[in-house]
Amino acid sequence: MTGIDEQVLAEVDAVFRQRVERGTAPSSVWGVFDRTGLVASGGHGDRGDGRAPDEHTVYRIASCTKSVTAATLLALVAAGRVHLDAPVTDFVPAFAAVELPTADSPVPTLRMLLTMAAGFPTDDPWADRQESVSDAELDAVLRAGLLFDSVPGTRFAYSNLGYALLGRVIAAVAGAPYTEVAAATVLRPLGLDDTVFSAAESRGFVVTGVRPHAGTWEPLPLTGPGAFSPIGGLFSTVADLARWGRHLASAFGPVSPEPGPVSPADRRLMQQAMRVVPASTVPGASRATAYGFGLFVEQDPRFGELVSHSGGYPGFSAHMRWSVRDGLGVVAFENATQAKVSAAADAALDLVLADRATAPTTTGRTATATRAAQRAVTQLLAGWSDELADAICTPNVAQDVPYERRRRAIAEAVQAVGADVTAAPEAEQSSAPSHLRWWLPGTTGRLRVEIRLAPLAAGRVQTLTVTPEPVER
User: Fold this and answer.
1) Helix runs in 401-467, H state only
2) How many angstroms separate the CA atoms of 391 and 384, rounded?
3) Please, are residues 232 and 66 in contact by the beta-carbon 8 Å criterion?
4) What single string gives the DSSP state of each residue in 202-240?
5) Taking a C-beta distance cutoff of 8 angstroms, is the pair 447, 468 a contact?
6) What is the pLDDT of residues 242-299, one digit of tens each?
7) Which of 358, 356, 357, 334 is nearest to 345 (CA)?
8) Helix H or strand E segment including 16
9) Residue 254: is the preceding peptide bond cis (ω within 30°)?
10) Of the candidates 225, 227, 245, the residue with the CA atom closest to the CA atom of residue 30
């Protein structure tokens, strides 16, 4: 049993099946994971050998690689071998030839590169074709000069060049090629053995990327490792990328974070909003978005923080996303240029999250206090007592709305929908462990009850609202 309704998983599967049926890509594969691992997966279309892809089929994951690059660098920082605020010129001498946009511009630091704030123009079409260039060729690009859209350190602009430079930094600090350092530092210790930097290393079936042309699919050649591998050079599987997403998500609990080569604190750091992403950068986005270290962070009013990253290379589209609060995530791959499987993965995770209870977990000091407060408020609704209210609420509750008025308003709300205040909640929602909203059934509607605890160890309620929701006629 996955803990996710089978009908919901069928709906998720349909999202990806329909993309193949519409001709978005020749093949599409997906996986859903939770804090225990991959719990469901499916694949559609022809991966290239007459079979549908599965969780072990190998695709390029493109810019999902950036999270591995960021994690590798943070491991070196934790070991005391480099500092995030060091200028890139300390490790890439050729960058000293770059003319900065203003006389007072700082040299981009590693932190600026990690958060896409080095001032470089957005560069997907150009950079996606640079993977195999050598370090010497990248140095020649730097010595020829760069354009800047902003002063380094002042604003977000998605930059592959920035992550190529971080790969050079990693190689310089570790004294070995970036691909070897990332594999030895992050991938192999986590058992991500199907996540590799070349098709030749892959153990499973490697899908060929394609683009539409003249009513058919035109195959595209695979590029090999080079100076731009840190931006998107990895091949992987649904099983492995779900393992990586689960590992990153585990840093937020609710149980002890999973151990690994990157500390839980640094994994949480990767998933923090470091740099606001302008709305113009993500047209049509319904959520406020920011960039952390190698990961996007979205703010959803229903589900809280959602962490994600897309990957797009010629012939491939990849996406991974998960809920920080619930530890539920989706990964998905397709093998067509500009397929934008991110849209399908986004819809799939929304389906999964909407199906799961959104109340706080019962573990943890704050969540336990919230549950205790819920039980006390249930008792208070069943029979109001000022003494009980004083025992479970902070003084401002009576000051904000005197008890007599509050008691009368609650009674009117209960009567308005014929609520059964002793019934089990019909649903629960929460925006934080110290917050809980639930509904009680009634004969002509339902009653919404909401509490928020004050930051006191005693677990006292600082807001209590009771609202009738009559059935619309």
Assistant:
1) 403-417
2) 12
3) yes
4) -SSPBPPPEEEETTEEEE-PPPPP-TTHHHH--EE-HHH
5) yes
6) 999 999 999 997 778 999 999 999 999 999 999 999 988 776 678 999 999 999 999 9
7) 334
8) helix 6-21
9) yes
10) 245
